[in-house]
Amino acid sequence: MSLALDPAAQDLLFREARTANTFTDEPVTDEQVRAIYDLVKYGPTSMNQSPLHITLVRSPEARERLVRHMAEGNRTKTASAPLVAILSADNEFHEEMPHLFPHFPQAKDAVFGERPVREGSAALNATLQAAYFIIGVRAAGLAAGPMTGLDLEGVRKEFLDDDHTPLMVVNIGRPGPDAWFPRSPRLEYEQVVTTV
Fold first, then answer.
1. pLDDT score recorded for residue 188
2. Of the residues 32, 101, 159, 173, which has the maximum number of CB atoms within 10 A of its CB?
3. What's the pTM?
4. Which of 105, 102, 82 is nearest to 176 (CA)?
5. Is the four-CA dihedral 29, 169, 163, 69 of positive or negative sign?
């Protein structure tokens, strides 16, 4: 059985998609980021939640502040990427539920009234949205380098507030020279699928 998605698109989004370790200096524009978001905002989440918050790090001063919080092996990549996005979960996402889930506007308080419930749901659904974002970056013909090797609490204090939980940093841009490490192995279908 073949997939409905064209093989070239399959390659672009998955088979040939890689985390770049070097980047060209070609800028990533606000228009590109808007087009990426306008595509991936349609990805499904539980109860149509949209807890993902995207902080674009553009200024040299902000970049320097962010690089300090990256693991040593990730600093050069983050320093050289044309654009870096901090992806976080908005723990106050429930305020938008009457708009996003209009057939059950009471979900704001009935389901998500308690902060611990919101935090768990925000982390899960924002991570799902982050995966859509990465695929959207690839759909734009750019490399997305998601990284969790960083001081997340330091990033929260530096760039966010107590209502946002950082999930990852994504370097974005066109791959530069010698951008790729060799492809690591993947698990096969039989290793991960169980039928009951």
1. 97
2. 173
3. 0.95
4. 82
5. negative
